Task: inverse folding
């Protein structure tokens, strides 16, 4: 083996190592959390919440930057190209696991270009319609959709997002035809429904409950197995007219592939400390969210399982990017 090759192997090995001291000193400067979704959505809200708590415990600023567009691909691609040093993190969701099948030609692969850091939380979604739609409950809405195939629209924050996938799953399981209107961010989609420009949206209960309670939209059903404690009077979609239906949204943190394991482990431990706080659990419960605590290895297994699960759903239902 030539001296040049040997030197290259040594340098590569050294580059992949982080001493315990260096890991203990991390972070030595500001950390960015890239949110590949719009401001005001669950990923943005919980990234800022988490960043504030990490800033307090690790004594460095955690700056949240929203980079929405192309169903999360723009912001995610930016993180994939970042240095694997722990100073650029990705706030991701099940958008990313569905996009592995839905968007195979994107410029990155989730399990190749990123490493799992920590899960954050999960929550139910809720189907809402604008009050001008002449349906008081889900059964009436189903009848309306079947009487006018393709005449109504639903909003989402882009292909592959939980809002898009939950709506397509609803279409497939209910045998209805409602047209997808993609938006750049969840706030834009939400505003389209609030303004009556789009008739329906399956949205995050954590951000939509106030508009339901304020009468700005009409709730038809939640997407979990059981009714939400946040809106107990709203039935699940499964009990209201589409048996077996279930969908959720979950969030997690990832980092560019090659990020040193000691830094990943340190971040995981700090995030899990935040999620274990009784006051955090109580605050999130009031918003309809539940902490999701895993090790990096458990998160890796969870991600691979979710990719496989949604691949089957997408193929069976024939879901495609419009």
Result:
């Amino acid at each position: 083996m030539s001296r040049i090759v040997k030197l290259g192997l040594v340098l590569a090995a050294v580059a992949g190592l982080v001493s315990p001291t260096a890991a203990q000193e991390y972070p030595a400067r500001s950390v960015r959390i890239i949110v590949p979704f719009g401001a005001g959505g669950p990923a943005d809200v919980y990234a800022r919440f988490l960043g504030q708590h990490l800033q307090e415990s690790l004594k460095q600023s955690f700056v949240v930057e929203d980079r929405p567009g192309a169903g999360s691909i723009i912001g995610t691609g930016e993180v994939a190209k970042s240095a694997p040093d722990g100073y650029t993190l990705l706030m991701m969701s099940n958008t990313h696991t569905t996009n592995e099948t839905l968007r195979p030609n994107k410029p990155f692969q989730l399990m190749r270009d990123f490493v799992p850091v920590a899960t954050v939380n999960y929550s139910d979604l809720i189907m809402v319609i604008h009050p001008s739609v002449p349906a008081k409950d889900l059964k009436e809405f189903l009848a309306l959709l079947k009487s006018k195939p393709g005449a109504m629209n639903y909003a989402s924050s882009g292909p592959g997002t939980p809002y898009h996938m939950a709506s397509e799953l609803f279409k497939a399981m209910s045998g209805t035809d409602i047209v997808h209107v993609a938006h750049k961010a969840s706030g834009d989609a939400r505003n389209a429904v609030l303004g009556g420009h789009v008739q329906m949206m399956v949205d995050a209960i954590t951000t939509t409950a106030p508009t339901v309670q304020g009468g700005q939209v009409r709730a038809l059903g939640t997407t979990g197995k059981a009714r939400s404690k946040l809106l107990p009077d709203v039935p699940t979609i499964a009990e209201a007219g589409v048996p077996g239906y279930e969908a959720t949204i979950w969030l997690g943190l990832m980092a560019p592939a090659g990020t040193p394991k000691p830094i990943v482990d340190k971040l995981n431990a700090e995030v899990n400390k935040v999620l274990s706080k009784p006051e955090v659990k109580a605050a999130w419960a009031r918003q309809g969210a539940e902490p999701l605590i895993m090790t990096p290895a458990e998160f890796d297994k969870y991600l691979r399982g979710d990719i496989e699960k949604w691949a089957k759903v997408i193929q069976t239902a024939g879901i495609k990017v419009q």
